[in-house]
Amino acid sequence: MSPDGVLGTVLDTAAVVCLVGGALLCLAAGVALVRFPDLLSRMHAATKPQVLGLLLVLLGCGLRLRTGVDVTTLVLIGAFQLATAPVAAHMVGRAALRERRPDPDLLVTDELPAGGNPPSPS
């Protein structure tokens, strides 16, 4: 077997591992969205394992496709996902906290005053 054939086999195997691992993480995130009891836990499940699962799937696709245009597109998709998912989760968390949705017993620190308005910056 030529070295290119061995390298191709190794890259294809790594791609399969990444694709399966990413798919399992995305599945776990979906199950957690249904099973977790409160908003903050669901928000965590919707962002952290979902983004990692997507990045693993993109890595697996990049290892399998191996062309410059495809890899560049996959890198852009991953970068946009990394830029938008934390911001969206932060905004959902702030809106939920402002509406008093989280159970106060589950919070370690409640930084929102009793009136419901956040403190003004100094």
TrEMBL record:
Residues that span the membrane, as ranges: 14-34, 46-65, 71-92
Disordered: annotated span: 102-122
Entries under InterPro entries matching the protein: PhaG_MnhG_YufB
Record keywords: Membrane, Transmembrane, Transmembrane helix
Keyword Transmembrane: yes
Any matching Pfam family: PhaG_MnhG_YufB
NCBIfam families on file: CPA3_mnhG_phaG (TIGR01300), PRK12674.1-2 (NF009314)
Family the entry assigns: Belongs to the CPA3 antiporters (TC 2.A.63) subunit G family.
Protein name: Na(+)/H(+) antiporter subunit G
Species annotation: Nonomuraea coxensis DSM 45129
